[in-house]
Amino acid sequence: MTIDLNALRREFTSNGISREQMNVSPFIQFEHWMKQATEADLTLPNAMSIATSCSDEVSIRTVLLKSFDDQGFVFFTNYNSKKSQQIKQNPNAALLFPWLDLERQVKISGRVEKISTLDSIKYFSSRPKDSQLGAWASSQSDSISSRQVLLAQFEAMKNKFKKGEVPLPDFWGGYRVVPHSIEFWQGRENRLHDRFVYLKQGKDWVIERLAP
Ligand SMILES: Cc1cc2nc3c(=O)[nH]c(=O)nc-3n(C[C@H](O)[C@H](O)[C@H](O)COP(=O)(O)O)c2cc1C
To answer: Of 3.40.50.1000, 3.40.630.30, 2.30.110.10, 2.170.130.10, which CATH number belongs to 13-125+174-209?
Structure first.
């Protein structure tokens, strides 16, 4: 290997975060950090990794956070995809926002549930028509023999839904990750980073500082 990965060291220098600065609500705290990530002009600050698993495999991929509130964090996908198959077997999942330019990350663990069909329809109908057709055309995670197959499928869907609105596919929609733990990580000097985790206890959230 000709790349010296050991040379890629970075000293974190941010001012850090204190217990007093953390909002009592992890959702308000998240909103605050998401706002700063958006204002910092990061590439897709709403891109998050989602890890899912079944009994003999863990897998991870990027999806886009489309909304959040105190119920949880919502993304959209194909309900037959690999992630969806795993969620069916094990609804526990983890999310990661790697906001590296801000020397921050947010880690979320929770249980995944489907959002209502009505809410999926609302989001689906707000998408550009070509994205809607793309959802219809792709049997996400399946093996396909060539890109031509995908393009032909896209054309077929374009033709099928030539007139009027493109309906929500019954194999596509939103999931909500309902969190039981949300951790805010801020890089600091000498690898003595700040970490605060919010843990759900009954209806309340308790905040703990974690060793870096
Ligand atoms: C920046 C970025 C955003 C993505 N957003 C989504 C998304 O919101 N929903 C989705 O299903 N796939 C999204 N993808 C594609 C997924 O990473 C992945 O290829 C797909 O969901 C299949 O995952 P699976 O086969 O493990 O289920 C995105 C990929 C990238 C790189």
So the answer is: 2.30.110.10
Atom number, ligand 1, closest to the C-alpha of residue 52: 26
Supply the mean pLDDT for the chain: 96
Q: Is the CB of 44 under 6 A from ligand 1?
A: yes
- The rounded Å distance from CA 208 to ligand 1 centre is 32
**Is 191 an active-site residue?**
yes
User: pLDDT for 162-175, tens place per residue?
Assistant: 999 999 999 999 99
Across 33-56, b (16+ Cβ under 10 Å) vs e yields bbeebeeeebeebbebebbbbeee
